[in-house]
């Protein structure tokens, strides 16, 4: 992504995990771990939305770590319907962000996985920022965001998402009274609207 990008091989439950670490200029504010969309539908750490999230974090002074779930790219293992992937994310956090400020972000299937990682980590350690984009609420049981994490959490969804209907995300968010930022006319992959998505994330990170 830039001259400050490092390739990493991390240790996962199913074997090696392939990852990329994007470094900001100057001192890092902390580490943001970004999770990619569904592995069985072409999702990888090189997905455009995932790269957009990483760029937003780097612009705001965070180190961004993207990684491939088990069975994707050079990551060992096979798809595990989300359960193994949650453990993959937690293993990545243990190795790249074992202390200091932590942020979590995910897109689509990655938001579902991130929601469960957030639930597992919340209360154990501080999590500064959470970003959930195109949350796959119609396809998976997305974990509730802890009430005390709402202020740190940004949920973004496209108005015309035909992969995950906006109504499904609202049905998930409504009982929690969790705000959802809706991008007018936006689709699941935010074609033509990635700069807007990035600016929303930068605004959240800068708040």
Structural summary, described in words:
This protein is an alpha/beta fold and 207 residues long. The protein has one domain (5-206): Alpha/Beta hydrolase fold, catalytic domain (Rossmann fold), CATH 3.40.50. It is built from 5 helices and 8 strands. It has helices at 48-59, 83-96, 109-121, 166-173, 194-206, and strands spanning 5-12, 15-22, 31-35, 63-67, 102-107, 129-133, 153-158, 181-183. The chain has an 8-stranded mixed beta sheet with strand order 1-2-4-3-5-6-7-8, sandwiched between helices. Helix 3 links the parallel strand 5 (102-107) and strand 6 (129-133). Helix 1 (48-59) packs parallel to helix 5 (194-206) and helix 2 (83-96) packs across helix 3.
Name the CATH superfamily assignment. Answer: Alpha/Beta hydrolase fold, catalytic domain
Biggest sheet features: 8 strands, mixed
Shape: globular
Radius of gyration: 15 Å
- Strand percentage: 15-25%
Number of continuous helical runs: 5
Determine the mean pLDDT: 97
Unreliable spans are: none
Helix content: 25-40%
Give the termini distance in whole angstroms: 25 Å
Query: By helix and strand content, what is the structural category?
Result: alpha/beta
Q: Please name the CATH topology.
A: Rossmann fold
Order of strands side by side in the largest beta sheet?
A: 1-2-4-3-5-6-7-8
CATH class category name: Alpha Beta
CATH architecture: 3-Layer(aba) Sandwich
Could you say how many structural domains there are in total? 1
